[in-house]
User: Which sequence fits this backbone?
């Protein structure tokens, strides 16, 4: 069945002159639902077409399904695939399948989230520690002295959001305002859970003056809670954007957003994979662009492609 499946997939990748191409690059994202991953997918496929090198894009529906990621990687270990491009949803559990993949003489590009062991050939992503620190500095500047803070955690095994939170916390500690974290909640993958957790904390912990959300789903859930409670008096900041988050920002429920570059991620990750496939020089680490969107730079930033993609698609 495996051979039939791969042959079937190959029929969808046609050379401009009409010759079928057999993909030798497999891209495995964390999920398919969030706008962030849709933007990466669109640019990855565009880069594949422009560089005349087909790819297979295959991943779980949502970011919680580490088991599916492992099964996908294992399925292709003994296939014609030569380069794996993986955004691991678990920083530890994907190490073994990635290692087995490399032991077969294949190459690996890790993107978006890192692994705990550097068993790959190249990494492409946001410098999440620095990005978390950057938004943390701005967050602290907007908070009152001795202000109480809530942090909404995403996936405890997700390297990217863990590093963002570490950077954010360091910025709070470096601030002279003596900011105090009084609530840390585990939200998981959905929008619903951060929505309910934020609503609950707004009611039961009125001393909270600021909330931080490290990714798209946690920020969207928190923003919906702020809208429902009509709370513009509390600082809400976080990572990533979609139409709901953008509207909440326009309505002043969200004070700042750290915008990543999903299109740049998709382009660079696939470009590195193609270089590995063709034995061209690669870079061990590539950190993609990021900008902090605030009320002050909004009119400049809204023309930037990091924001433009999300409000025009």
Assistant:
């Amino acid at each position: 069945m495996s051979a039939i499946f791969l042959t079937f997939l190959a029929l969808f990748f046609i050379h401009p002159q009409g010759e079928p191409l057999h993909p030798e690059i497999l891209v495995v994202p964390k999920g398919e639902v969030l706008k962030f991953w849709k933007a990466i997918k669109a640019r990855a496929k565009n880069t594949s077409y422009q560089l005349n090198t087909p790819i297979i894009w295959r991943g779980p529906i949502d970011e919680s399904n580490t088991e599916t990621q492992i099964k996908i990687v294992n399925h292709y270990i003994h296939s014609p695939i030569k380069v794996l491009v993986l955004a691991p949803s678990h920083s530890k559990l994907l190490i073994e399948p990635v290692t087995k993949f490399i032991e077969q003489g294949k190459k690996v590009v890790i993107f978006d989230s890192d692994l705990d062991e550097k068993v790959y050939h190249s990494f492409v992503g946001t410098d999440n520690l620095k990005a978390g620190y950057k938004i943390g500095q701005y967050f602290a500047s907007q908070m009152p002295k001795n202000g109480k803070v809530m942090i909404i955690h995403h996936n405890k095994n997700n390297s990217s959001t863990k590093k963002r939170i570490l950077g954010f916390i360091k910025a709070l500690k470096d601030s002279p305002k003596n900011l105090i974290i009084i609530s840390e909640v585990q939200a998981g993958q959905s929008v619903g859970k951060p929505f309910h957790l934020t609503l609950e904390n707004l009611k039961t912990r009125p001393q909270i003056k600021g909330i931080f959300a490290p990714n798209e789903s946690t920020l969207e859930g928190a923003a919906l809670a702020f809208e429902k409670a009509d709370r513009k008096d509390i600082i809400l900041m976080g990572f990533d954007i979609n139409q709901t988050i953008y509207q909440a920002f326009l309505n002043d429920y969200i004070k700042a957003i750290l915008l990543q570059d999903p299109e740049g991620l998709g382009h660079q990750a696939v470009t590195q994979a193609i270089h590995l496939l063709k034995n061209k020089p690669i870079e061990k680490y590539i950190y993609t662009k990021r900008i902090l969107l605030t009320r002050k730079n909004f009119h400049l930033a809204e023309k930037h492609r990091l924001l433009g993609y999300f409000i025009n698609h």
Notes: The two ends are 37 Å apart (CA to CA). The mean pLDDT is 90.
